[in-house]
Amino acid sequence: MAEVKKSWTIQFNERGFPHVQQAFVLPPDMMKEADPFILLAEDWFKRGTFGDHPHKGFQTITYVIDGRLEHIDNKGGRGILEAGDVQYMNAGSGARHAEEPVAEDIVHSLQLWLNLPASLKQSEPFYQDIYSENVPVKKIGPAQVRVFAGNGGPMKPLVPFMMNEISLPAGEQYTHKLEPDHTAFVYVLGGRCAFGENETVLEKGQAALLTKGHDIQIKSEARSKVLIYSGKPHGDPIITHGPFVMNTQQEIREAFLDYQSGKFGPEAK
């Protein structure tokens, strides 16, 4: 059985207009311990926050909790995500896009940065929009489990990755299956739960890294909603600088040169 290895309370930062509030649910200083995960950011923002910008060497999984989020990329892609929708992006060899609220909406989102192994750093960029109505919901005992990735979920990531949202009524228990070789972490979106046989209690606004195991036991002490992310670590060296995640400083320099010389293509607009 998996247990809570490390837990923490999320620190939210008031940013003002247009980036209203921001927090690192999974802070970037944990990226080596949390391999293959780089960070998980939670944001509340208005239009003008995430205009045209580049990425290279990793993947993003963006979950819209509230508001309407318009995606535009410089390959002609465009779409709108609403509450409950998710977008998977493979930045690979270099992507350039914008993620902005529609009209006067305030978007509340979670964006996960998922590292690519060295062998896939130069893979072709692509996007996959996953609408809430296409996400299977499994009833497993008292739990309702939304399956975004893994176990028949619609997301098609390039690396082994699972993403599930678990809803539990108060006073119920559920055992969630994990891949024993995966790194897994949880984020409590609402309520209060005890995790593992050691029954470590986490409540809304808290997150935890788990030990490796086949299952994690969850007991709800209140009506609860929990996100569980898990992915297979690859152990490659990791160097980050702004929107680029590579294996060496030289590759970071090359990424900046490629972007500045126009190899990422024109502005997304």
From TrEMBL:
Instruction: Return the Pfam families for the record.
Output: Pirin, Pirin_C
- Provide the alphabetized UniProt keywords: Iron, Metal-binding
According to UniProt, the name of this protein is Pirin
- Domain Pirin C-terminal intervals: 165-265
State the PANTHER family in the record: PIRIN, PIRIN-RELATED
Tell me the lineage of the source organism. Answer: Bacteria, Bacillati, Bacillota, Bacilli, Bacillales
GO molecular function term, any single one: metal ion binding
Which family is annotated?
Answer: Belongs to the pirin family.
Task: Name the InterPro entries on file.
Answer: Pirin, Pirin_C_dom, Pirin_N_dom, RmlC-like_jellyroll, RmlC_Cupin_sf
Give the binding site residues for Fe cation: 53, 55, 97, 99
Q: Can you give the residue ranges of the Pirin N-terminal domain? A: 42-114
